[in-house]
Design a protein that fits this description.
It is a single chain. By secondary structure, this protein is mainly β. Helices cover 9% and strands 39% of the residues. Strands 1-2-3-6-5-4 form a 6-stranded antiparallel barrel. A hairpin with a 3-residue loop joins β2 and β3.
């Protein structure tokens, strides 16, 4: 019987500069979210923690290593847990945190407005 590999493809960066080359300013934060692969039933989703957000992307911590290229429907909650915002994204980067969680970097399929970013960050403490 052939052994199945559990290796998750992870994009390699040649330098920290290449990794940090982003289109929009990122804001460090701590927000709750859920992530649902677009090809699964609506009842299948994972809880996530948002670490940073910009107009064009987001950094999440998840307990599941979604593969680069996976499309995710993200439900983002502002600090007041009021009206969640739904945003479609694509996984760009996955990094094992060596503690049972994964850092997942996503690019939004359509950039969000500065007002949307401000609305999500309003009432939360920005992390430095």
């Amino acid at each position: 019987m052939a052994e199945r590999s559990s290796t998750i493809p992870v994009r390699q960066f040649r330098s920290a500069l290449e990794f940090e080359r982003r289109k929009s300013e990122r804001f460090d934060c701590e927000l709750d979210a859920t992530a649902q692969p677009c090809d699964t039933p609506p009842s299948v989703f994972w809880g996530a923690r948002v670490h940073n957000i910009s107009r064009t992307g987001i950094g999440l911590t998840l307990c599941f290593p979604f593969c680069p290229g996976t499309y995710l429907s993200l439900e983002l909650f502002d600090a007041n847990q009021d009206q969640p915002r739904m945003i479609l994204s694509q996984v760009i980067m996955v990094r094992d945190q060596n503690n049972g969680s994964w850092l997942v970097g996503c690019q939004f399929l359509q950039a969000i407005s500065e007002d949307d970013v401000d609305g999500l960050l309003q009432g939360t403490t920005l992390v430095n």
